[in-house]
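Lab meeting, action items carried over

1. Structure of the two-component assembly. Owner: GW. Status: complete.
Input record:
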Amino acid sequence: MSSTPDTPDTWRKPPFIANRWLRWAVYLGIITYILWVGASMPIDWERVADGLGRAKRIFGGAFPPSFDRSGLLIDGFLESLKIALLATAGGVALSVPIAFMAARNIAPLPIYYLGRAIIIIARSFHPVIVAIIFVKAVGFGPFAGVLTLIVYSIGFVAKMLAERIEEIDFGQVEAMRAAGAPYLSTLVYAIMPQIMPRQIGLSIYQLDSNLRASAVVGIVGAGGIGATLANAFGRYDYDFALAITIVIVGAILISEGVSGMIRKRIS
Amino acid sequence: MLKITDLVKRYGKGDPVLKNLDLTIEGESVVSIIGSSGAGKSTLLRCINRLVEPTSGSIELNGTELTTLHGRELRAARRKIGMVFQSFNLVDRLTVMENVQSGRLGYISTWAAVMRRYPKKDIRRAYELMERVGIAHYADKRADELSGGERQRVGVVRALMQDPEILLADEPTASLDPKTSEQIMGLLRDLAGELKLPVLINIHNVTEAKIYTDRIVGMRYGRIIFDDTPDSLDQEAMDQIYSGSPHADRKTDMKEAS
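Predicted assembly:
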């Protein structure tokens, strides 16, 4: 090893923005904007103080949680479970063809754009907003919840599945084509086996996720335990509301644990 | 008989990868194609079963012009052309039997394929061929549980299940160790004789090409510059085939070819 006196012995990682002036201007700009936003936000400290008192009343009324009307609670929870199950089944069934449409490596360009468009639309609205629309369309109740969560499932499952399809080993598809296999047989033999583990994992995750979301969309009238919770709040039954919240948290913990276990098994 | 006339393949607007190529394969001969990487061997093979679209020229298999076929007719023609791949291209998560039967997908309905209701004679044929290459006891195993040599045997049986009129092998031994590689080459040669099947093999290993094939075609960047028996492949011919650069060779006027 030879090293001349000219060989440098210091090195610095090149900065993300090469121009020094531009770099500092960007940093300064971001900091100034955040400070300005914080300063210009109207925060009424009196209302904050009032809120503290009100919060105390709510929590005071909530303890101890009341399970007196557990019949209502169980009904609401079972309805949520039904909504989540139906929505997952429907959502996953619709997601598979949409995912195939939205996979660049197997779909013709116009179909690909159509598939992507469906996914983008399904993803662009939060379930609560979708639920409000469906409640308007089909009325209060679990049916609106199911429709909402089907849209929500498509947005996630179809997107992730399409990405998995784009990652497949295309050699297997080539082998089927070389054998003269028709289109559908090729999908079933060369692509399905490759995406199946992901498909199962996604479905289980989505069931878990739908159960959580079904509690939220219930609040805007789409049925399930969310509706029960909204009613309890509306009638100032804070102790019942706390009981419902405890059940929701417990159910989500259990479903998360179970789905995690199953997904670990198949991967 | 496979008859290729004036075949040209050009990707985009670039220089052609195959230039006015002519090649005829008759009877049940085992023909190997040698040449450096990028010479167009793989493209040539894939033009035959239209995994790659030829730009112009004609490819005729036993009287059927392949280059103009579409849809159902193309699939029917592909059934008659078996292909063996370098990376085997088996469906890892399916059983050996399912992989073998996937060679019949062009013959059976999608419904039968999905339900795995394979015709009795296909199952019998599968067992016969698997027995012949020594993998019958793996029928129920998943394809990814097998070793490289065994996997390529599955690949060969899958191609033979198509009841092909010609077998194409795209570097079938490049992913295998030397010993297994020789076994597979021997197997291809023997099967060609037993089934009266012409076989066209892309191969990098010139020694194996000389031992196991009846005729060697040497390609250099889109052209065939050697086509003779293995004995005639001397050092000079070898140097010719493996010299040149892709760019310089492809740029020269196409009329010069052949």
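2. GW to write a short summary for the group page. Key points so far: The first helix of chain B runs from residue 41 to 48. Residues 253-258 of chain B have pLDDT under 50 and may be disordered.
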